[in-house]
Amino acid sequence: MTNPFFENKGPFKINEILSNINIDSNLKNFDTSISDVKDLFNATKSDITFFHSKKYESLASTTKASYCVTTNQLSSVLPKNCEPIKVNNVLVSTAMITRMFYPNAITDDFDPKTLNIEKTSFNNFVNHGQNILVGKNVKIGSNCSIGHNTIIESNVVVGDNCSIGSNVIIRNTLIKNNVSILDGCVIGKKGFGFFPSRDVNIRYPHIGIVIIEDNCEIGCGSTIDRGSLSNTIIGKNTFIDNQVHIAHNNKIGENCIIAGQVGFAGSSTLGNNVMIGGQAGISGHLKVGNNVQIGGGSGVVKNISDNSKVMGYPAKDLKKFIKDNK
Fold it and tell me: Containing H/E element for 181?
């Protein structure tokens, strides 16, 4: 799917990309055109991708990308169709390449093309409060309501039977049917992705989006960041309590229940039917299986297998936690 939110300035020749990241390489086809930068799973023959951690070996070994930014140590994992571009810092180099293709994804300035809903066609069929702003190319389905002081920025899609509360900001987001977004939510802003530097921190462009599937509820004051190169996804029939933070690239499964003040670091995956108690924290780049229960206040720092019940910090098997805390 073409991303409707950020304009791709490509294609670029591979030699232009190498020059941009200050790399001298012995690559053979310097005139090859590269259409986009994508993650290992979604990249095609016309794309460049990146591979920075052994956690992603299985994806790297089957990627369809023609070029991959990686390290000398990891380059042997790549398939024959994918030529490695060896660098010292994969993520910094990938950020520089992404900025070439999507220079407008660095900042999150307000949308200057919004109009008061009363000046749009939505005024006639959307039940709405006062001071609602709507951007260009927005789609809103039937039987929807929008509360006071809410902003829906350009290109956002809202399905049928959706309820959007007051003081909500939505950008870079696709919302399916029967979704409730309660007051004070901010959805689709850039994630907390940057590289610390003593002088000026280097921002990582976030060109992904947020997808909220059917029958979900997002509680008051919650924030859901858009993805960096992939998307942040909330699965069907998942209910999220108040003041929950979901960082970039997280994939939340179907029928999950997430209590208040839970925090997710980036790029973790939750299975289906996961229940998480209040104030738990989920570290980044983890996999939580199906039918998992995580006790309130727990700290999850490693993968959790299917059908597990865990609690504590670091989170451990519930029976062991109870035994250790008698």
Answer: strand 180-181
Cβ atoms 101, 80 nearer than 8 A: no
From 128, 206, 245, 248, active-site residue: 248
Quote the pTM value.
Answer: 0.93
Domains of the chain: 12-105 (3.40.1390.10), 172-324 (2.160.10.10)
d(CA 204, CA 107): 10
Query: Looking at the chain, how many residues does it have?
Result: 326
Integer distance in angstroms from the first to the last C-alpha of the chain?
A: 53
**Catalytic status, residue 248:** yes
**pLDDT above 50: residue 66:** yes
Closest CA to 140 of 127, 122, 167, 128: 122
| Chain segment 142-199, per-residue pLDDT in tens | 999 999 999 999 999 999 999 999 999 999 999 999 999 999 999 999 999 888 888 8
Q: Are 216 and 179 in contact (CB under 8 A)?
A: yes
* Max Cα-Cα span within the chain: 67
- Residue whose token pair is 């989006």: 209
pLDDT band of residue 28 (cuts 50, 70, 90) is low
pLDDT at residue 27 is higher than 70 = no
Q: How is the beta sheet containing 299-300 ordered, strand by strand?
A: 115-116, 133-134, 151-152, 169-170, 186-189, 223-225, 245-246, 263-264, 281-282, 299-300
